[in-house]
Amino acid sequence: MRSPVTERTVPGILTDLLTQFTQLLRTEGELARTELSGKVNQVGTGLALVVGGAVLLIPALVVLLGAAVAALERAGYPPHWSALIVGGAALIVARQQRSQVRAGVRALARRDRVPTSRTAWRATIFLTLRGP
């Protein structure tokens, strides 16, 4: 059974096309905003955890380094040499860790610049075309 064919004019078709295209752009914009707000929440949570961990980690390291200095003093080293040995060892470890931190920061920077999903690509295109 065939459905009845309705006569449509070219201006009517173009009006429908423009309406549907506008609705598509609005929907894609809303999807992109939703996805980006979720990513912002994830980044905020991750940053809060990193800061919280650093707040607890730094005093713990200071206490451990102080204990190492005290242990060297108890073993017979003079206080200034104990502090120098522990400080030098901490500096060597920190220098080795610096390259790993830089690699992680570079990886994060690359990942943030390139959209990873289809919706993010659409949002990038939409925001570029929309302009300021």
Descriptive notes:
This protein is mainly alpha-helical and 132 residues long. It has one domain (12-130). Helix content is 86%, strand content 0%. The chain has three helices and no strands. It has helices at 10-74, 79-113, 118-130. α1 packs antiparallel against α2 and α1 packs across α3 (118-130).
The H-and-E topology, N to C, reads as HHH
Strand fraction equals under 5%
Spatial shape: rod-shaped
* Fraction of helical residues: over 70%
Q: Mind summarizing the main beta sheet?
A: none
Strand runs, count: 0
Alpha carbon gap, first and last residue = 52 Å
Radius of gyration: 30 Å
Give the count of helical stretches: 3
- Going by helix content, strand content and strand pairing, the class is mainly alpha
Spans of at least 5 consecutive residues with low confidence = none
What is the mean predicted local confidence, pLDDT? 81
Whole-number count of domains: 1
